[in-house]
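Quality-control log, excerpt.
Job 1 of 2 completed; input and output follow.
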Amino acid sequence: MSKPAPSLIQQRLALGRLRLTSLFTMTGFGALAVLRGIGLDPTEVLDWVVFVFSLALALYGVKLWFDYRRKVRAFEATHGPDAGKQS
C-alpha cells in the first residue's frame, strides 16, 4: 500500500524548512568564507581548504534558495497562494 500524500500544511512546513536551511547555509558559510578570505595566509594549505569549502557551501545555499523559490512557485500554482498557511 502506498502512503497518502502529506497535507498542504505539512508541505508548506517542509518548504519553510528548506527556506531556513538555504538561508542558514548561505549566510553562515558565506560569513565564514568572508572571514577566512580576510585572514587568508596564502602559504597555508589548510586556510585555502577551509576557504574553498566554506565558499562552496555558501554557493550550495544559493542553489537551495533557488530550489526553494521554484518549489514554492510550483506549490502555489497547483494549490493556490494561501494553501497550507495557518491563520
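Job 2 of 2 completed; input and output follow.
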Amino acid sequence: MFWITVSIAVLAAMMALLVFLLIRLRRDQLFMAQQKCCVTGTVTDVKPFRAGGTVSDRVTFCYSVAGTEYTRVCSCRPQRFHRDQTVQMICHPDKPKMAFPECLFRVMPVSALRLAAGFCAAVPVLVLCFAVGGMNEAWSRYFDHFQYPLSLLYIWGSYWLEYRIVRRGKSGTGTIVYSERDDKTVRAAAEFTVGGITYETRVMQMPARRCTREYVQGGQIGVLYREESPDESVIEDDTRKEKLWRLLAIIGSIVLPSLWVLSLL
C-alpha cells in the first residue's frame, strides 16, 4: 500500500508540473504576441510524415538571435514550406530558443488549458480507483460499473468537439492551399481570413470512392469555423467525423445504459 501511495503521489506531482508548464507556456506566448519580436529564419529541412492516416510535414527552421544560431522543428500540413524558404519567426526576447514561424504562431486558448488541467487532474484519480479496486474485490466490482458511463461521456465529448464546428460553426469562404488524391484517399485543406488573421483548416481525409469533387489549389471553397476560436475549422465537405461520432453517440446512448443497468443487477 505504501508504494502504491508513493507512486500515485509522484504521478499527481508530475501532472501538476505538466499543468504548471502549460500555464508558463501560455504566459510566454501571450508575452510573445504582445512584443512581436521577429527575426528572419530559413527552412533547412522538410520531412513528410505519415502515421495512422495522419499526413504532415516536419519542418526544421534555422534562425539567428544576437549572433547565435538556433533551430526549431514544427509540424504542419504538407506542402506548406519548402527547403531554403525564408520565413518570419516570432521569438521570445528573453528566451530565444522559444520561437515559432509567424504564420503558425497562435496563443494557446484558455479552453485548451482548462481541458488539459482537467485531464491531468483525472489521471491520478483514475489510477487510484484502479489501485483500490485491485486490492479489494468489492471495490473492484463497484468501479467496474463506471466503465459504461465513462465510455458514453467520452463518445459524447468527442461528438461535441465536431458538432460545435460543423453544426454551430460560422460559414466563410477559403482558398484551397493543399490537395492530394490517391487510390484510397482524398486530402485537402484551405486558408481563410478572419479579422485580418489568416487561418488554415485541418486536412480533410475522405475515402476516394465517396468523393466526386475536384479540389484544385487556388480554388475557392466554403469553410466552417468556430467564431470564438477560428483555429478549429474544416472545409465544408469535411463532415464525415461529425456524422460518425453522432452515430456512435446515438448507438452508445441506447446500448451502454442498458449494459450498465444489467451490470448493477
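Post-run check on job 2. The mean pLDDT is 88.
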